[in-house]
Amino acid sequence: MDSTLIILGALALSSAAATVAGCAEDLESDVGSQSNPNSQVQLAPQMGNIHRYFNKAISGEPVSYGLYVAVAGTIAWALMNIGMSTIFALVIGAGVAAFIHGVYAVSAYLGRIVGQSQNFGQPVYLDVVITHLGPIVGHGFIAVFCMLLAAYLATSILGNPFPLPLVALIFGITVGAIGSSTGDVHYGAEREYQKYPFGGGVPVANHGDIDIKAEIGIRNGMDSSYFCSKLGGPLTGLTFGLIVFLDGWRGIVGGILGNALGGSLISKSIIAIIVGIILVAVMVCLNRLVEVYARKKYGPYTDR
Amino acid sequence: MVIGLLIPFVEITLAGAIINASVHFVPVGGAPAAMATSTGIGTGTTQLAAGAGFTGLMAAATMAAQNGIDIFNPLHWIIILLSGAVGSMIMLGLTMLIGQLIYVFGVGVVPAADKCERDPITGDYQKSYITPGTTGHAIPTVCFISGLIGAALGGIGGALAYVALKQLGFSSEVAGIMAVGFFFMNAVLASYNIGGTIEGFHDPKFKKIPNGIVASFVASLLTGIIVVVMSLGI
Amino acid sequence: MSHGGGGHAAELYPENQILAIGTILAIMGMYISQFFPQVSMLLGGLLASAAIVAGANTTRKVAAYGLGTGVPSIGMLSLGMGIISSVAGIYLVNTVVKILGAGSELLYIIPIVVIVISVVLGYIVGRLTVKPIGMKIPVMVESMTKLSLMGALSIIGFCTAYAGGFLPNIIIPGSIENGVMALAFIAAGMGILHPFNACLGPNESHKRTLTLAVACGFLTWFIFSVARLDVVSSIASIVLWAVVYKEFIKQSLKDACCVYYTPEIPKREM
Fold first, then answer.
1. Which regions span the lipid bilayer (chain B) (predicted)?
2. If you write DSSP's letter for every residue of B63-76 in order, what string do you get?
């Protein structure tokens, strides 16, 4: 079969996996409240808001996802070395990573809550730990498995020279960086502060004054995951899927155009780089369009 | 022989300085940005720079691993570095663009920079669009461009470190893991220099960049010496 | 990530005591792995986790001052330096043996060389963070030196345990070229940065943080045991981990102001 077709298929599959991974990663971090928005959950008891959020301060998302995917990748690689089938190896690797994830999540919750419990009167809610652990580990498993699949495709078909554990580590760090810089904004700036009117940043004076009441009853992390699955999660997935896809796609375009021109490897690579630069230029234009739209639609503050 | 060692040594020293400089360009707002309380991307400096730099490192490594690419050929060398730069720019560009979408449609804020009266690129007036009590939010054009410059430099820096290690004769695997450690060391030094948040090249904090570059230059010089002596034992 | 400095709670054991014990145990672990490769994961892995405990303890000391960029950054910095010094130590001794034609017995000093390089690198990077960068933390230089040392020891400790020795012809194919060092980088890094990052706060106690650090060390050992597909050490590590982790949970529940099992908000009276 044509090798370009195989590469295109592998690229499509790994982009799809990356999309699912990004989405699951963001929703998982919303259930557990990890990464930057967590600073507000951490601050809440000092501001007098006793809350029932899960306080999953394992570390920044990039580092923790780097760990889970690297664990899964190393174990899957070891199992494949003794002859286990690829899919089984990936699943078992992701399973062990899910266990590690759960362990770190529980110790982070207990550590952070107890670390300020006496001074601010924040109780430990064991039912929060038990009910939230399932969604956290489950979403984490989906994310880690999909990342691992993308990493496996990168090493086996897409020509990445690094060993699987290293690629897994790098993919994990990247997905964490993307998840914490796109989707978490929706959770931190909107969901935690829904009692304030839509359409504005959170002033420093309001920091820590997060919503502790839900639509019905007392809010917990799982409501947040439902809310963020409408915008933050899917867009995070889209970001990561597009990154994996566009970065590979420009190489394929370079290959096809370069072949058509009868060119060498050099001209193919140069075309790939030019395509990449065009893509970046398009992003700049889109960003400007969104900015202009927002300025026109929302307008300046006139009442000060 | 001496030239063969000297070039990678210079490359790795420069790579450290470039990586450090790159981090200063990336507009990161840290935890406050995640609450739309300050301008920039809502995550930590080091991790975002690492995410972008590693995407570039992988793009460069994939390019360098293709049949017919010779890392000692200057033209090929440039292509590897540019591949790294473009890979990083795509990663950070998309992250900022989609982050922007969430800011505008999910949170409902107007992109606005706090550290300048007017956007130096578009000339848009900024101050009146900032929510009272915050120091700007989202990613206005100047921050976006600054971020892209930072990503390009980060990709070049990561690729340069990788190429230098390859030129010294390390295998791809060893060069890759060393480049990751090297990148983290320099990115953290830069983030300590920034001290949390920065908006981009128009931010007054950007003037501290020489300190960061000097620190990384010295640290990379030391690493360069170690690495060159190491390479004799392969 | 911005964290307020948690202040300094009373220390259970002096930092340098933990540091010295961690260093000695980790070095012992490496030599045991080298000379008795059949128990390398069982004993070498166990002793390598001592380096993680010592590193986590030093992280607690320096991060309590508030770094401005969160606890994880210092863990990554220490492991970044650790990875450079571990790979450097292995190759440097190899260089000396190859070029100066020294006897191959010299290769057995690799762990010592790694320690020297990591201390030098950590000291210089620590000085750089003070001047020109200008971090205003009094213990910065000494803490960076210690963290670089612990990062290097935990990376090379677990890599040696995985490969079954630290001689270049064993560890380079056995742990570096197959990418296991990437796992050592992030897993040891998490073990070093997580305990304090999890436990910080005004009511942080050294005892709890240290218990969690021991649990994280054993968990890292468990990860490597599973990755090596070593059944005996997997079971040994998970049992030890469970004992310590249970102790951590018990202490946490004891130190909490109250523990609830139902969704209710306590009446504010304090």
1. 41-65, 77-105, 138-162, 174-192, 212-232
2. HHTSTT--TTSHHH
- The answer for residues whose C-beta is within 8 angstroms of residue C119's C-beta and 6 or more apart is C145, C148, C149
Residue B202 has which token pair? Answer: 């128009």
What is the structure's pLDDT at A280?
97
What is the interface size between B and C, counted as CB pairs within 8 Å? 139
Residues of chain B found within 8 Å of residue A207, distances taken between Cβ atoms: 35, 37
Q: The whole model's pTM is what? A: 0.94
What gap in Å lies between CA B192 and CA B212, rounded to an integer? 8
User: Domain tally for chain C?
Assistant: 1
For chain A, the chains sharing at least 3 beta-carbon pairs closer than 8 angstroms are B, C
Residues in chain B: 234
Residue in A137, A170, A123 with CA at minimum distance from that of residue A56: A137
Token reading at B228: 């060159």
Residue in chain C lying closest to B48 (CA): C73
pLDDT of amino acid C3: 41
Q: Quick one: closest CA in A to C1, which residue? A: A36
* Bridge-based pairing state of the strands A124-125 and C259-260: parallel
d(Cα B233, Cα C93) in Å, to the nearest integer? 8
User: Nearest CA to B171 among B55, B16, B65, B14?
Assistant: B65
Of A206, A195, A200, nearest to B129 by C-alpha is A200
**Is residue C2 assigned to a domain?**
no
Distance between CA atoms of B122 and A292, rounded to whole angstroms?
10
Angle between the N-to-C axes of helices A164-181 and A126-156, in degrees from 0 to 180, rounded to the nearest 10: 130
Question: Considering only CA atoms, which of C202, C80, C212 is closest in space to residue C151?
Answer: C80
User: In 3-state terms, what secondary structure has residue A76?
Assistant: helix
Instruction: Tell if the CB–CB gap between B34 and A36 is shorter than 8 Å.
Output: yes
Separation in Å, CA C175 to CA A49, C88, C90, C151, C164: 49, 14, 12, 16, 9
Helices (H) and strands (E) in chain A, counts: 11, 1
Please report which confidence band the pLDDT of residue C201 belongs to, taking 50, 70 and 90 as the band edges.
confident
Tell me the pLDDT tens digit for each residue of B138-147.
999 999 999 9
Neighbouring subunits of C (3+ Cβ pairs under 8 A) = A, B
Query: For B6-24, what is each residue's pLDDT tens digit?
Result: 999 999 999 999 999 999 9
For A138-191, how does the pLDDT look when each residue is reduced to its tens digit (9 = 90+)?
A: 999 999 999 999 999 999 998 889 999 999 999 999 999 999 999 999 999 999
Please give the backbone phi and psi of residue B218, each rounded to the nearest 5 degrees, phi first.
-65, -45
Residues near A205 by Cβ (< 8 Å), separated by ≥ 6?
B133
Q: What is the residue range of C41's domain?
A: 15-257
Distance of alpha carbon C143 from alpha carbon B4, whole angstroms = 37
What are the residue ranges spanned by the domains of chain B?
1-33+43-232
Rounded to 5 degrees, what angle do the CA atoms A121, A126, A127 make? Answer: 120
**What pLDDT does C7 receive?**
47
Question: CA-CA distances (angstroms) from residue A298 to B33, B106, B116?
Answer: 20, 13, 20
Report yes or no on C172 lying in a domain. yes
H/E run at residue B49: helix B45-64
pLDDT confidence of residue A143:
96
Cα(C89)–Cα(B226) distance, rounded to whole angstroms? 9
Nearest-angstrom CA–CA distance, C79 and C153: 10
